[in-house]
Specification:
The chain is of the alpha+beta class and 565 residues long. It has 25 helices and 17 strands. The strands form seven sheets. It has a five-stranded mixed beta sheet with strand order 13-12-1-15-14, with helices on both faces. Strands 2-7 form a two-stranded antiparallel sheet. A hairpin with a 6-residue loop joins strand 8 and strand 9.
Length: 565
Amino acid sequence: MRVMAQMAMVMNLDKCIGCHTCSVTCKQAWTNRSGVEYVWFNNVETRPGQGYPRTYEDQERWQGGWVRTRSGKLKPRSGGRVKKMFSIFANPKLPSMQDYYEPWTYDYEHLINAPAGEDTPVARPKSLLTGEDTKITWSANWDDSLAGGNEIAAGDPVLAKVSGQVKQEFEKTFMFFLPRICEHCLNPSCAASCPSGAIYKRAEDGIVLVDQDRCRGWRMCVTGCPYKKIYFNHRTGKAEKCTFCFPRIEIGQPTICSETCVGRLRYLGLMLYDVDRVAEAAATEGEHDLYDAQRSVFLDPHDPQVVAAAREAGIADDWIEAAQRSPVWDLIMRYEVALPLHPEYRTMPMVWYIPPLSPVADVLRDTGHDAEEAGNLFGAIDALRIPVEYLAELFTAGDPEPVRGVLNRLAAMRAYQRRINLGEAPDESIAAAVGMTGAEVDEMYRLLAIAKYEQRYVIPAAHAEDAHRLEKIATECSLDYEGGPGMGGGGPYGQGPFGESSGTPVPVQVETFHMLRDRQTAGSFTDPGDEPRRVNLLNWDGKGSPKGLFPPRDPESGPVDGGNP
């Protein structure tokens, strides 16, 4: 047994309202830069729907994840080393910009400066890639509330697998929201697909990152990731991906998507697992067995033998204590209500989901029954407007039994707590029907419904003795602003849709089309305003005289440095 620690996330889909706040705040924090205008590390998909990029779950087309060979070993679906060597300069299995979407902004200034006339002026959409007028067709967070209806749902690869059991009739319409980030897998196929070895998994917390210095832009990782959560920066020629907000995690703060989530549906915690069992579990023969196989890899942090092995592996006591208090451990292992996204990809994802239950009560209420009575709820699980078979294709490789088990526990919690709220005595038989005690149901309710901030996010901070090493890692993976380490600076990467960028711009792109164009074509250094920046020869574009770069003018001896002030 070789113990390692992994930061993990669980999302309660019953509480997601599709507001996209997580997407917007992640965009502002990480991908609000030239070259990644189309990139959303966090996006929220409406289900059924085609996802972002379009139909990313169709692995026959995109060749992501792992496949099990006849010998029982795993190999990337996109091919092994020999195939990659022969196709290294031509990789056709990549989503195009149309599969993502063409990013745009609006010409708001035209609304103000347009001459008086009979017609009301409009803010035309402008492409952030070409600077030309564009037609908006869709985006990463687009299909809200089944926008497009059957036209959109018809392209859903998951729905195609259960098309014989799901009728796309208006009265049977169903939908729910599915937020997605990088899965930070235990067995990442993106890392195995990278020819330059730029993608790596941090030993201390399992976060998967891209070393910007080693990345050579082969884009094999984009093909290899079955979730299509690695993106290509077309200005730097580098791959980028969700970083799990590692600078925040290192100081004990939650990811920005979790911090700003309106529905409080995200949980963060530490999981201990046996790294020696990962390969065997990922290579489990039956796809329906992959869910249980991954759970078997996780180690009980309360087990004295596991604690001793963790200490021997160098895991600090406060990290072990955090694993014992982890809400992720409780939701996955103790209450068994969280499920992995597409375990059949064999990457062993570490962002898990609690499937939605809410439409069950709606169906019962509309038929005139008591929507909160335990017997009615249990009997209506298979009448769920969101078909169990559809949820199974998402979370358990098509096996409906684990999904039914999760929905039954959630229904039991609802019925059990309802009696208490009405002043009636708790009914232990409701909890016993799903293999739980009343106390366990009450604790699960408190975690899912009324948990405080410190209970939803149990994140051990990095230790001071690791500071130097973590600072080096942060330098290798910095994606915070243009001109930072690994971001290329000027030269051939300084070309945006409007020409050469002017120095180190303010990392904010929520602005008008003309402001963006003026900023990128200015003839002088862009002053970051009240945001201090260190100006040096590495990030100066040769225009103007930034304060602090040259010695001040000496009034007696005149200009210095050949006339520069």
